[in-house]
Write a structure and sequence with these properties.
Layout lengths: L32 E7 L3 H12 L7 E8 L3 H10 L6 E6 L5 H14 L7 E6 L2 E2 L5 H6 L8 E7 L16 H10 L3 H20 L16 E3 L6 E5 H5 L13 H12 L3 E11 L11 H17 L8
Helix pairs in contact: 1-2, 5-9
């Protein structure tokens, strides 16, 4: 997402509170799933996502909400024209750039304020993803939303890199120390970023990206610690149990936030390789660590470390 300072009104800061429909609200259309995607410019990718969604079997059982993160009047106009014929797709324009989870929470709250209830599945995803598998929704709907907390699908980049499972284990003290170092020193963050992409490039040039191990499509769901934040599938059970979208994370670290909330609530985070998504990563944020990106990264990681991975929390 675009590197801008977070602008979250204190009146909207509801960290730790689960999403709930307003009291005495009438129940509107109740789709099986709600997909919220965040547009911060790059309308062509949002349009491509809408096209891929419209081709899915079961699309009529999906509600889609595009939250435009203050991209400007022109961006909103382009998207409004694109979705004019899609009756189950709506556009919500934010007055400021609220970040990834801030915009997602705004969208979820707006959805509930219109008399809707939480569907079986709530998907939060980047706008730079597409779904080519026309049976994606049918496969998702076969799962019981009362048996899992969060599902991470198989996510592949154009280089065939596998982004899930994102983390198999909870970060230990060494990884937490690395987080502290890279969130306190710009040069350390740049060095880590540079090494990461050099390692990936080397793997690619030596014979292609090496995919992470994943079970066969007919295998049972694989328990993991955290799923990649570009495409998170929340079950209704997650919110019924008290789970929430932590809007205090402007960008980076949402994976750990979701994982730790599930851990606290004893909800399983699972990986399902039968659900497949393509991700054109870094379209919205760029591929390398700029100074402005570092400042956002620093704030997010310090929040994650103090709120979810402090010494007390990790005991």
């Amino acid at each position: 997402m675009r590197a801008q300072n977070p602008q979250i009104s204190s009146a909207r800061t509801t960290n730790g509170k689960s999403l709930q429909p307003p009291p005495n609200s009438s129940q509107g259309r109740h789709p099986k799933a709600l997909l919220i995607t965040i547009n911060t410019g790059h309308e062509d990718y949002t349009k491509a996502l809408m096209v891929s969604l419209s081709r899915l079997s079961g699309f009529s059982d999906l509600s889609v909400l595009i939250v435009d993160n203050a991209s400007g009047v022109a961006s909103v106009a382009i998207l409004q024209k694109e979705i004019a014929d899609l009756t189950n797709v709506r556009l919500l324009a934010a007055s400021a750039n609220l970040g990834y989870f801030g915009a997602a929470r705004l969208g979820a709250e707006d959805y509930l304020s219109r008399g809707n209830s939480i569907p079986d599945w709530l998907i939060i995803c980047n706008n730079d993803v597409v779904i080519d598998d026309k049976e994606f929704l049918e496969k998702l709907f076969r799962h019981d939303p009362l048996k899992v907390g969060v599902i991470g699908p198989r996510i592949q980049t154009p280089l065939q890199t596998e982004q899930n499972p994102y983390m198999q284990q909870r970060p230990g003290w060494k990884k937490r120390l690395g987080y502290r170092l890279c969130s306190s020193n710009y040069r350390a963050a740049v060095a880590r970023d540079w090494l990461y992409y050099k390692k990936r490039s080397l793997k690619w040039w030596l014979g292609g990206a090496v995919p992470r191990a994943h079970p066969a499509e007919n295998a049972e769901l694989q328990p993991i610690y955290a799923a990649h934040g570009s495409f998170l599938i929340f079950s209704r059970r997650f919110f019924d149990a008290g789970g929430y979208i932590d809007e205090n994370i402007f960008l980076n670290g949402e994976e750990i936030s979701v994982a730790e909330i599930c851990r606290t609530l004893r909800l399983p985070v699972v990986y399902d390789s039968a659900l497949s998504v393509q991700h054109h990563e870094h379209v919205t944020v760029g591929a390398h660590m700029t100074r402005s990106m570092f400042e956002i990264h620093k704030k997010s990681m310090r929040y994650i470390l103090s709120t979810y991975l402090s010494h007390r929390e990790c005991q």
